[in-house]
């Protein structure tokens, strides 16, 4: 055998070996998953490549969601309280701040009154926005001073989750038992309109181009597609069971949704509005996070204490990340 032929064979064998070794693994992530565990009252730092827990930091009762600062230095965990939406229980009034470099609690921000703060998101203006259910508002927070500097009224109770437009000028909140979506003018801190969607809705997502907002009917197996140009429901997406949450892929081609009663996740073609892929996932899938490189979607499954891992290139489920029961909200931190 010639040297060239031998090298070619060796190279082929090496590639085959690497592929075989890769098996059911995604491309390297270059980051860390930051996961709120509301049953343990902790925040978990997780290496998604090795599927191992790097650190566990105690927070208040209960932190459901988490946001990471744009520089990946801090994580912010609103402390909601010990109950569910609309149920009696404690009313949280603080946000715990985690130093992601030192992997410890860096401080607690006092919001000044009971609010049941739930979802945090950073806007393109560098401010932190947090849903404040009991105030029927979004709180606007300066992360440097750690002070609430404004409120944007939603005009509705139980404004649980929200999304921001790419330019940060509009926000859309899902108002759970009101069954509505509030459209907010973030710049001028005012309510634009309220959209009646269903008897009850849960969670909300927005297309990458900002043209559509999606929320999930909790009494029928369908997802509302709201046209943000008209602020009206333009289409209903029929699905096999009721959806709890959704997230569009960064290219806008698919909408991922979780169906907790069926323990499934589905991919919806955003052109045809039809389900084109379906996956079995662990018990009660709740939240979806798509990695910044668009290679992988992570799905928390709270009772199972697992995070399902979906390869968005091959559309295959990879081995799950096994943690502890209670895993809920997620955010991404660059290493």
Name the descriptors.
single chain; 335 residues; mainly beta; 4-stranded antiparallel sheet; 6% helix; disordered N terminus
Question: Can you walk me through this structure?
Answer:
With 335 residues, the chain is mostly beta strands. It is 6% helix and 51% strand. The chain is built from one helix and 28 strands. A four-stranded antiparallel sheet has the order 3-2-1-28, with no helix packed on it. A four-stranded antiparallel sheet has the order 4-5-6-7, with no helix packed on it. The termini are far apart.
Report the uncertain regions: 1-22
How are helices and strands ordered from N to C?
A: HEEEEEEEEEEEEEEEEEEEEEEEEEEEE
Rg, Cα atoms, Å: 21 Å
Main sheet attributes: strand count, strand direction, barrel closure: 4 strands, antiparallel
Proportion in β-strands: over 45%
| SS field, number of helical segments | 1
According to DSSP, the number of beta strands is 28
Strand order of the largest sheet: 3-2-1-28
| Chain-averaged pLDDT | 93
Helix content: under 10%
Structural class: mainly beta
Q: Judging from the principal axes of the Cα atoms, what is the shape?
A: globular
Tell me the span between the first and last alpha carbons: 46 Å
Blueprint (SSEs and pairs):
Elements: H1 3-22, E1 31-37, E2 42-47, E3 52-58, E4 67-68, E5 74-79, E6 94-99, E7 104-110, E8 117-122, E9 128-132, E10 137-142, E11 147-153, E12 159-164, E13 170-175, E14 180-185, E15 190-196, E16 201-206, E17 212-217, E18 222-227, E19 232-238, E20 245-248, E21 254-259, E22 264-269, E23 274-280, E24 285-290, E25 296-301, E26 306-311, E27 316-322, E28 327-334
Antiparallel strand pairs: 1-2, 1-28, 2-3, 4-5, 5-6, 6-7, 8-9, 9-10, 10-11, 12-13, 13-14, 14-15, 16-17, 17-18, 18-19, 20-21, 21-22, 22-23, 24-25, 25-26, 26-27
């Amino acid at each position: 055998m010639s040297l060239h032929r031998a090298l070619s064979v060796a190279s082929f064998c090496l590639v085959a070996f690497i592929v075989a070794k890769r098996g059911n693994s995604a491309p390297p992530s270059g980051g860390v998953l930051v996961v709120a565990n509301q049953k343990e009252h902790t925040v978990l730092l997780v290496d998604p490549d090795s599927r191992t827990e790097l650190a566990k930091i105690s927070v208040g009762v209960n932190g459901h969601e988490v946001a990471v600062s744009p520089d990946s230095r801090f994580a912010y965990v609103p402390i909601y309280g010990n109950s569910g939406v609309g149920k009696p229980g404690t009313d949280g009034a603080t946000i715990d701040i985690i130093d992601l470099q030192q992997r410890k609690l860096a401080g607690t921000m006092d919001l000044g009154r009971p609010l049941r703060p739930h979802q945090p998101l950073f806007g393109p203006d560098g401010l932190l926005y947090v849903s404040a259910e009991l105030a029927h508002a979004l709180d606007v927070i300066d992360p440097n001073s750690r002070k609430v500097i404004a409120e944007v009224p939603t005009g509705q109770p139980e404004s649980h989750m929200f999304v921001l437009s790419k330019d940060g000028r509009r926000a859309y909140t899902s108002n759970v038992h009101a069954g509505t979506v509030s459209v907010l003018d973030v710049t001028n801190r005012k309510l634009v309109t309220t959209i009646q969607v269903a008897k009850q809705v849960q969670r909300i997502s927005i297309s990458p181009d900002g043209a559509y907002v999606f929320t999930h009917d909790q009494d029928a197996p369908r997802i509302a597609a709201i046209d943000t140009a008209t602020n009206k429901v333009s289409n209903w997406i029929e699905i096999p069971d009721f959806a709890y949450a959704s997230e569009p892929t960064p290219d806008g081609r698919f909408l991922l949704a979780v169906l907790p009663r069926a323990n499934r996740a589905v991919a919806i073609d955003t052109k045809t509005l039809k389900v084109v892929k379906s996956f079995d996932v662990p018990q009660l899938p709740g939240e979806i996070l798509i990695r910044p490189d668009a290679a992988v979607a992570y799905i928390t499954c709270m009772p199972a204490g697992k995070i399902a891992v979906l390869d968005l290139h091959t559309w295959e489920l990879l081995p799950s990340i096994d943690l502890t029961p209670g895993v809920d909200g997620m955010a991404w931190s660059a290493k």
